[in-house]
Amino acid sequence: MDKKAYTEKEKLVLVSLVKEYGACIENKKTDGTSIQEKQNAWEKIASYYNAQPDINIHRTSKQLKKLWDNLKQR
User: Fold this and answer.
1) pTM of the prediction?
2) Phi first, then psi: what are they for 35, rounded to 5°?
3) Which of 45, 37, 74, 38 has its CA nearest to residue 61?
4) How far is CA 51 from the centre of its chain?
5) How many CA atoms lie within 13 A of 19 on its CB side?
6) By the 8 A CB rule, do 55 and 10 touch?
7) From the CB of residue 59, how many other CB atoms can be counted at a distance below 10 Å?
8) Across residues 10-21, what is the average pLDDT?
9) Which residues form a coiled coil (predicted)?
């Protein structure tokens, strides 16, 4: 796993992608269907994120979710 810090550009890309899936990933429900939908949304976000031309380091959905959680806390 790569431990490189995120650039401001990478953070902005993530925020813009999360806005598209915000209703799904911020859903407070914890039933099996909702959890699966959240995982699928994070996989799509990771796929779109890594497809961006300005992104040099590929990140996993788990890494991006952790970054999002950290950004929300700030």
Assistant:
1) 0.88
2) -65, -40
3) 45
4) 13
5) 6
6) yes
7) 21
8) 96
9) none
Closest CA to 37 of 27, 50, 51: 27
**Dist CA 17 CA 44 (whole Å):** 9
Model pLDDT for residues 32-67, shown as the tens digit of each residue: 999 999 999 999 999 999 999 989 899 999 999 999
Exposed/middle/buried for 60, CB within 10 Å: 0-12, 13-18, 19+? middle
Q: What is the DSSP code (8-state) at residue 4?
A: P
Q: CA torsion sign, 42 to 39 to 24 to 63?
A: negative
| Contact predicate 41/21, CB 8 Å | yes
Rounded CA separation 9/15 (Å): 10
- 8 A C-beta contact, residue 25 and residue 41: yes
Among 14, 8, 38, which residue's Cα sits nearest to residue 26?
A: 38
